[in-house]
Amino acid sequence: MPKYIMALDQGTTSSRAMLFDHQGHTRASASQEFKQHYPQPGWVEHDATEIWQSQLAVAEKVLADAKVGPQDLAALGITNQRETVVLWERATGKPLHNAIVWQCRRTAPLCDRIRAEGFDRTLRDKTGLVTDAYFSGTKIAWLLENLPGARARAERGELACGTIDTWLIWQLTRGHVHATDVSNASRTLLFNLRTLAWDNEILNYFRIPASLLPEVKSSSEVFGETSLFGAPLRIAGVAGDQQASLFGQQCFGRGMVKNTYGTGCFLLMNTGAEIPRSESGLLGTVAWGRQGRTVYALEGSVFIAGAAIQWLRDEMKLIRDAAESETLARAVPDTHGVYFVPAFVGLGAPHWDAYARGTITGITRGANRYHLVRAALESIAYQTRGVVDAMAQDSGLRPEMLRVDGGAARNDFLCQFQADILGIPVERPATTESTALGAAYLAGLATGFWQDEQELAAQLQLGRRFEPSMDVSRREELYAGWQRAVERAKAWAK
Ligand code: ADP
To answer: Is residue 298 a contact partner of residue 395, using CB atoms and an 8 Å limit?
Structure first.
């Protein structure tokens, strides 16, 4: 009997492989960083071959370290940095160019043109996304436009394209399978949330031939087999990283929300079978597809969260390491009226103000570094509240609790303050690897390793639950102060 599921977690800065046992416990893990390429200011690329080689290397390493053979594996799950695209030659599997990474801003002028032509409304309506360089579609259009001969070759059917999941599946199956899952497809700006297919009107607009794109499958089914590990292994679960984390956190019910606190924050709310529409600057996206059903999500991202703590450490030298922020914050009862809005790169959801800049307000003579550090941690919780409020407004659903993960979720002060400022409990699972676990769950459910969601629910291990303990008037008074501070930060760089 196979004892493990292997999950590949292909992230923005590193490739990771993990083995999970039947209880959902981590048996082994290996990861490897790879190089970031910045060919011009604002441009970000990865070497797609290096991505594949690093991913294969860590998969082999995790098996060797744990002394586990392919016969011990029930299936393989894949989760990945989203929106990043690769264009390659079908005959050889060779990329034509570096991967264009989600962070890359090279297609911002194209997005301006789309807005000027008014096509952004069509895109919003059909794909749930805002017209921004972040998403894959304009990146693919850029490659076809700028690589000599690429468009003609694409039209002759000689090329293939895809997000990182698709690239890994192609390599793992030696070119036999060209496929993606609905969650990754929903980040491309080319995928219709209603028909769950590539949208012809959008493909025509971007002049992207349909033959370039992968087949779209659900997130939990057998995509194909790889024999690179010595015996055939089924690839059976695929989802974008934030969606995989929502699944790994077991937010299976409508209205459930998870927040990942990393460099920024990514909040996703399960909206069930309903296609979400946002009037508040959130995105509509596919959470996952499984057993013939599609689950949707509302998504809101905050650009700077844990990065504000890094800034206190690296630029301001107020703390030695991120964990010290907790000790300092606890040394004072409050921020002494100080608010810190870390709008270093503008503000994301729900404000979308590219011209906002970092602001510290309310400083008086008694303010000190403890107050500033505390204000930085509190800003992460306030920004999260802004997105949760927007989600409630758009969906009519008020979450009963918030599940958290990511590096900064290790901070107990932050988790408690988050519970206080939202007025709902915050639950932190024992394992912080929700993303890889989500991919493993999707693969294990597709292959009978696990039967159903109920079976998974039994293995959910709570690390700690933080109950709200602040009274309502205090909470609303603090939050009102934050909202005033945000107004001061907006439109600064205009
Ligand atoms: P990413 O995947 O975006 O690189 P991680 O999930 O690894 O991020 O989290 C790293 C971020 O979390 C960093 O920005 C760091 O400053 C922050 N962080 C890590 N530990 C703590 C802590 N104990 N308190 C506050 N922030 C923390």
So the answer is: yes
Nearest ligand 1 atom to the CA of 406 is 6
CATH number at residue 195: 3.30.420.40
Ligand 1 centroid – CA 255 distance (Å): 26
Which amino acid appears at position 38 of this protein?
A: Y
pLDDT tens track of the chain, all 494 residues? 899 999 999 998 899 999 999 999 999 999 999 998 999 888 889 999 999 999 999 999 999 999 999 899 999 999 999 999 999 999 999 999 999 999 888 998 999 999 999 999 999 999 999 988 889 999 999 999 999 999 999 999 999 999 999 999 999 999 999 999 999 999 999 999 999 999 999 999 999 999 999 999 999 999 999 999 989 999 999 999 999 999 999 999 999 999 999 888 999 999 999 899 898 889 999 999 999 999 999 999 898 999 999 999 999 999 999 999 999 999 999 999 999 999 988 888 899 887 889 999 999 999 999 999 999 999 999 999 999 999 999 989 899 999 999 989 999 999 999 999 999 999 999 887 899 999 999 999 999 999 999 999 988 888 999 999 999 999 999 999 999 999 999 999 87
Q: Is 323 in the pocket of ligand 1 (CB under 6 A)?
A: yes
Classify residue 455: in a domain, yes or no: no
Q: Is the CB of 322 under 6 A from ligand 1?
A: yes
Q: Is residue 349 part of a domain?
A: yes
Segments of 140-246 assigned E as strands: 159-163, 179-181, 191-192, 197-198, 215-217, 220-226, 233-240
Has this prediction a pTM greater than 0.85?
A: yes
Ligand 1 centre to CA of 82 (Å) is 19
Q: How many domains does the chain have?
A: 2
The domain of 398 spans: 250-429+461-494
C-beta 301 within 6 A of ligand 1: no
CA of 392: how far to CAs of 253, 255, 478, in Å?
15, 9, 20
Distance, first Cα to last Cα, the chain = 62
- Number of Cβ within 10 Å of residue 467's Cβ equals 11
